[in-house]
Amino acid sequence: MSDPEERQPKRGADPTLVLGQMVCVRADPSKSGPVIEVLSAVSGVERYRVFHGRSDVRDYYADQLERAEPPPADALLTAVAEGRSLDAKIFRARLTASRLARPQVDNLYALHAAHQIQPVPARHNHSREA
User: What is the pTM (predicted TM-score) of this model?
Assistant: First the structure.
């Protein structure tokens, strides 16, 4: 029989981390990312591969990670998702701020619109040559 303490998760370890779950490093909570792979355990301690950026993928022991707190809900997005009507002034202000923060969005829409294809009816020659 194995020792009951051996089966318990290590101090601070979260045994329920799953693929895709957002986690952060306990020593530096600003360093966060999704679990992209559950690795084989070493000495009974679970290990995880975490994506921090395009060239920053690291392996951690379970006790080095904790679940990342979800960002606070945006009241405007919540209202839209629930189908509630929005104050027109607030909506226009948020839309303008969003467009100023990311001006390329308008260009992408214009570029996409420029490539719309209008179907042209095909002309069939119904006369047959004998």
Answer: 0.48
